[in-house]
Amino acid sequence: MRQALRPSVRLRVLPSKPEVPGPDPSRPRNAIERARGFLLSLQQEDGHWCAELEGDTILESEYILLMHYIGRADSSKVRKAANYLRRRQEPNGGWGIYPGGPPKVSASVKNYFALKLVGDRADQPHMVRARGVIRRLGGIEATNSFTKTVLAVFGQVPWERCPAVPPEIILLPNWFYFNVYEMSSWSRAIVVPLSIIWARKPRCAVPRQAGISELMVDRAPAQSPPPDRSNAERVWRTFFHALDRSFKIAEGLQLNPLRKVALERAKDWITDRLEHSDGLGAIFPPIVNCVYAFHSLGHDLDDPLILRQLRELEKLEIEDEDTLRLQPCFSPVWDTVLTMNSMFSACTPADDEHLLRAAEWVLDKEVRQLGDWQVKNPGVEPGGWYFEYANEFYPDCDDTAEALIALSQVRFPDSVRESRRKYALERALRWQLSMQNRDGGWAAFDKGCDKEILKYIPFADHNAMLDPSTADITARSLVALKRNGLDRGDPEIQRGILFLYQHQETDGCWYGRWGCNYLYGTWLALWALAELGEPLQAEPFRRAIVWIQERQNEDGGWGESLGSYDDPQFKGSGHSTASQTAWALMGLLAAGDVSSEAVRRSVEYLLTTQHADGSWRDEYWTGTGFPKVFYLRYHLYATYFPLQALATYRSRVAGRGTDRESGGPA
Fold it and tell me: Whole-model pTM above 0.70?
């Protein structure tokens, strides 16, 4: 065995607390069976699961704007989407980016404009309240760059006020310090079509009464940067703003000799990535941007390129009797592998027919072609899995890790399918190992996408320009590697363990990038460290246990507001939810806390909040798209995570698991 690296943390052993008797064993057993039954009732005929993925109202407002652009403003779907916007307006008059959250100016401006386009008058009470909130937040001038650009398309903002997104960036070579592959994959898919839009500057007329000039606020006098900005940040912001002005001057003077080539290259880049994909990136914003971009390049609205994007958009619609909402994308691979692992936690046999069908469906989604990831990770055979139904250019480490865990527990009865499973696991394992960053961690979609200065580019104000290593994906990756043959002595494992120790907060928790928030990150980190044989009585575990226990709510559950991404005072604090209670419980179990009062109360919370059909429901959102910008509610999180937690608890109490397997699929 190779020499193990030693993490730079003192592993001081602390005393254990006394055990507390748990609930009647029959109650968790019955709850587990009911939850399994509920999930099985939702399994699709071909074996997969996919529940609704809920996002905020910018989806509906941008949908309304696009329908106006393509001449479908009078459709019943647009009226239903407007109904949905009105119902989601907060009592304060604005719109937040998650229910109950503070009003956000960009979302509120787009929603206000969309409602005016469908005929709402500025003097109607709900519009008066919205306008008051928007103006207090700074008006149109305070919106982000993406919002200003779409408003410019409709003549509500001069193009000169939109940050420059020159299409010539697509021509920058991959070795150049800044190029499109230094952006996160989701930003790349948004920005490339956006650069076409900025260059072509399409214009769509709106009725005079639908204009939103009343949302203009006189510009505040220039202010000095906040005092907490570093000198380096001030320098780079100044540099990029000067560059932005230079691009606009050159644009005005038509000093862009490479423009035609750049536009052709950008279009080719997009169309290449529409193959084997449900729209560019298989997510809402790039799909919408592609319609504007292709039309601005001269494509008719009935051109196959545009019609295909509109069909993908239609798939995301959820139409009810009087409302219409849209999903940002679909989550079938993610929902399927997480459901499989919750079932395995409940001691479902490895050859269960339901899970074999699910495994076959997952195997059909294996990535077998090169994608954007290979630019910074060349010479690696494709492998792994993506998030959506079809998105071959963009496999991700989180889905791949969870799929590796799920498929490692399946056993097909015939040699043909079993060989297929093993080869897919081998390919995915090699791909996952190749995606480890230099810091020892794993990011989502790309390797080495962490150049901090790129956050200061004017059009990067959506706070999602980078894709750095995170504790949650690193933890899940480590478990996947362990389940597929690596051990604690392997250097990749050791580097990952060191990354987790180095990113533990001083109070004992871990930040959760892709789930809200510290409860999510802490569960996954503890699960990985325990599974890999780290000493449970060491100080990092005990500090984490104390942190989790101290944040338990009076009702026995745990919750954490999405506001914790903005303000650390909300860390681990919020209304109890089933999913976050499950994460906290699994974190305690992973850290060796099996019979404390906190564990007993959390199990009781899950047992008493389960619905008669075997499900749970989270009223508060617990999913993260982009911190501070876009959040999600995965409708199945509230069921498969509690199932996993209760099954893990039952296994630990009954002595059917080991300390190294607690906190996750057994």
Answer: yes
Q: Reply yes or no on domain 56-157 having CATH 1.10.1740.10.
A: no
Q: Could you give the CA distance from residue 279 to residue 287 in angstroms, rounded to a whole number?
A: 6
Q: Is the pLDDT of residue 392 over 90?
A: yes
Contact present, 95 and 127 (Cβ < 8 Å): no
Residue 133 · residue 141 · CB < 8 Å: no
- Do residues 603 and 585 lie in contact, with contact meaning Cβ atoms separated by under 8 Å? yes
| CATH number for the domain formed by residue range(s) 163-204+232-326 | 1.50.10.20
Q: How far, in Å, CA of 451 to CA of 178, rounded?
A: 9
Instruction: Inform me whether the pLDDT recorded for 565 exceeds 90.
Output: yes
Mean pLDDT of 119-130: 97
Residues with Cβ within 8 Å of residue 446, at least 6 apart in sequence: 181, 184, 185, 372, 373, 376, 377, 467
- Rounded to whole angstroms, what are the CA distances from 242 to 235, 362, 397? 11, 49, 37
Number of other CB atoms surrounding residue 452 within 10 Å: 12
Beta-bridged to residue 577, according to DSSP, are: 558
Please write the tens of the pLDDT for every residue from 587-615. 999 999 998 999 999 999 999 999 999 99
Residue type, 337: V
**Is 93:134 a contact under the CB 8 Å cutoff?**
no
Nearest to 621 by CA among 571, 663, 560, 664: 560
Strands 317-319 and 53-54: unpaired
Q: Where would I find the H helices in 138-230?
A: 145-153, 185-200
Separation between Cα atoms, residue 153 and residue 203, nearest integer Å: 5
Length of the chain, in residues: 666
Instruction: Give me the mean pLDDT over the 257-281 stretch.
Output: 96
In the structure encoding, which two tokens stand for residue 399, read together?
Answer: 């889905």
> What are the two backbone dihedrals, phi and then psi, of residue 174, each rounded to the nearest 5 degrees?
-65, -20
433-489 residue pLDDT tens: 999 999 999 999 999 999 999 989 988 887 789 999 999 999 999 999 999 999 999
Identify the three-state secondary structure at position 268. helix
CA distances from 222 to 241, 243, 415, 458, 607 (A): 14, 19, 70, 16, 56
For 205-264, the pLDDT digits (tens) are 999 999 999 999 976 444 445 556 777 788 888 888 888 888 888 888 888 899 999 999
Q: Is 65 helix (H, G, I), strand (E, B) or coil?
A: helix
User: How far apart (Å, rounded) are the C-alpha atoms in residues 401 and 239?
Assistant: 39
Q: What percent of the chain has pLDDT over 90?
A: 86
Residue 310's contacts (CB-CB under 8 Å, 6 or more residues apart) are 70, 291
For 530-550, how does the pLDDT look when each residue is reduced to its tens digit (9 = 90+)?
999 999 989 999 999 999 999
Alpha helices by DSSP H, listed for 273-381, are 284-296, 304-315, 332-345, 353-364
Residues whose CB falls within 8 Å of the CB of residue 587, separated by 6 or more in sequence, listed in order: 519, 522, 523, 526, 527, 544, 548, 663
Residue 11's pLDDT is 45
Active site residues: 398
Q: Where do you find CATH 1.50.10.20 in the chain?
A: 56-157, 163-204+232-326
8 Å CB contact between 579 and 618: yes
Q: Which residues of 150-165 are buried (b: 16+ CB within 10 A; e: fewer)?
A: bbbbbebbebeebbbb
pLDDT of 580 over the 80 cut: yes
Q: In this structure, what is the dihedral angle of CA atoms 134, 137, 139, 143, given to the nearest 10 degrees?
A: -110
Contact 178/101 with Cβ under 8 angstroms? no
Can you tell me the distance from the alpha carbon of 202 to that of 313, in angstroms, rounded to the nearest whole number? 21
